[in-house]
Amino acid sequence: MAWQRMWWACRYHLTGLPDGVEWWPGAPDDEHITAWLAEQSARRALLLPEQRRRVDELLSLTGGMPVWRPRISNVAWQTLSGLLPARSHTGGRPRGERQSLEAIVHIACTGQAWTRLPPALGPFQACRRRFIRWRDDGTLQQISRAVLPEGDAIWQQRLAAYTGPA
């Protein structure tokens, strides 16, 4: 039932709601829909034949596979980069702070599990460790309270909700 509900939401996000129909409280938004469709495409081989057909139908409506897109504007990044703690590299390949913050924002906006992080954002384990460190040291709260351009307000609000009260 949950799969059908998400398919329905995805379809009507793409085509518009029928007349007289309204979104239910807590209905998935565009961020959730895009993430769900990407996940279904990635696991296409595991879907039932009818589910594969329905996913293909949705992909034809979108014009192809949804891809991850950065949310943090360059102007916002100039402000945020000064709020981040000094890097503490303890081995392995160092991750870029912007890439890590984009991963954290992606999870906050989509509600996806860390294991479903898009490959463009790097390994989920490294991003999740950075999330925990920044959450615990207050960095994410500072980011949530920073004055940023209006276009960054949506992800900033979702990050604040995801990380919890100060």
TrEMBL record:
Residues 73-143 form the Insertion element IS402-like domain. InterPro entries: IS402-like_dom, Transposase_6_like. This is Transposase.
